[in-house]
Amino acid sequence: MQTEKAYYTLPVVETCTAEIREIRPLNGSAEVILDKTIFYPEGGGQSGDRGTINGAALLDVQEKDGEILHRVSAEDGAGLAPGPAELVLDVPRRRDLTVHHTGQHLLSGITLSLTGKPTVSMRIGEAVCTIDVDTPEFSQDTLVALEEAVADGIEENSPVIIHLCPPERIEDFPLRKIPPKGEEVIRVVEIRGKDFSPCCGTHLQSTGQIGMLRILGAEKYKGMTRVYFIAGRRVLRDSRLLRQNGDAVSQALKVPVGEIGKGVRAYLEKTGILERTLKAREEELARYKAQDLVRGHRDGVIAGLLDADINEVLRIGKAAQKLTEAAILLGARKDGKFGAFCSAETVDLRSLIKEPLETYGGKGGGGHSFFQGVFPNEKGLSLFIDAFSKK
Ligand SMILES: [Zn+2]
Asked: How far is the CA of 151 from the centre of ligand 1 (A)?
């Protein structure tokens, strides 16, 4: 049965009374059919409304063959009965989607008039919206020009006019995209004089209500260009978040907020130099420690538990490996790990390590000249090192 689409005929209302006609069970949920509805069903790139029907939360709204299907949970569906119902619309969410949808018309219309490039598809997302434009790329200057032209369009506050047009008269309108086929009436949305588009979504009454539209960026997408944008209150929230982050970085780096990009690059350059210097010093220190370690050992076995972490152990072990043919096993007291190293081609570390590793509860892996692993406690690691030193 057809549902009266009150979301087109009524102004945006928070509540409305309707009649539940039917409740249909549906794979773990239920579909509610009303005589009329204020809930817009998903379509035209805009997601369906949310709200409640007699307190039951809407999970989704879809349209099928002129019927609007309101999906609720199976439990909520079981609590509903045919008869009068109070519909409550999530107005802030609807308003947000409507702002973005109308913003999309303006952006697509201006993109066409300014660059000659048509919008092929669009999506009004809950966080970010996109239009896919039939062009291989847009320069940064073009994106700024589009954003400025949209801001002009918002300030002009042009009325948004809905025309209900029979298909045979559709050529009266200079449509930006091809109208749907097989409709009794085609809904044409006009931004006065500027943009004409067949559309089934929800729209503002004038462009001024969009408030503001920001193009966040663009990227290549399937031979086209996908332009990302936000509008209305999302711009305000985004600006607030960026300002808070900008202020935090500005205070930390002691540079004006307008220069934080430059400030961060300079900071990274400075820390990069410090990191390289530190690494060189660490390597130098490891070489000295390695020399001490191997003194007097041309071959055989060297083993010890160092007051270090595994990174330092690995640096020392690798430096020591270049100075001797001894099999070296170094434990890292700080994290219970160990590394084993050997440059003699006749020695296979695995044959020296396997049995004591298992005996004292360690785990590890490696090849014949390098092996590393870990013990759950220092006692196991110490016993393992002792056993290895007696090899
Ligand atoms: Zn629309």
From this structure: 19
